[in-house]
Amino acid sequence: MSSAITVRGLNPSETSWLKAEAREAGISMEEFVRRMIRRQREQHRPAESVADLFLRHFGPEHGVELPPRQQYGYRPVEFPRDALPMEEREP
Questions:
Q1: Exposure of 39 by Cβ count < 10 A (0-12 exposed, 13-18 middle, 19+ buried)?
Q2: Gap between the Cα atoms of 26 and 77, Å rounded
Q3: Which of 72, 66, 35 is closest to 52 using CA atoms?
């Protein structure tokens, strides 16, 4: 299995910077790029919803049956005519 990384579109100054940083860290340039990518992914990971966290810790794999997810859409609030106070009712 190959684990080579091909980075295209780098100008010579970027390539020399990568080589210098990798040399300073004592690793290959490919490993340095892998670590940069991994760090970016970890920093920009989308936040998990509470439901997803709950499912991960208490889901079917752990013996807990959760109700099915439902879609909740916007539903405008409607007030029945009888629920309004007398002064706000239209004649």
A1: exposed
A2: 64
A3: 66
pLDDT tens sequence across 27-85: 988 899 889 989 988 888 777 788 788 777 787 777 777 666 666 666 666 766 666 56
Q: Is residue 27 part of a domain?
A: yes
1 in a domain, yes or no?
A: no
- Structural domain total, the chain: 1
Q: How far apart are CA 49 and CA 55, in angstroms?
A: 10
Q: What is the pLDDT of residue 4?
A: 66
Domain that holds residue 57: 12-61
Burial of 51-80, coded b for 16+ CB within 10 Å and e otherwise, reads eeeebeeeeeeeeeeeeeeeeeeeeeeeee
Residue 55 lies in a domain: yes
32 neighbors 21 (Cβ within 8 angstroms) = yes
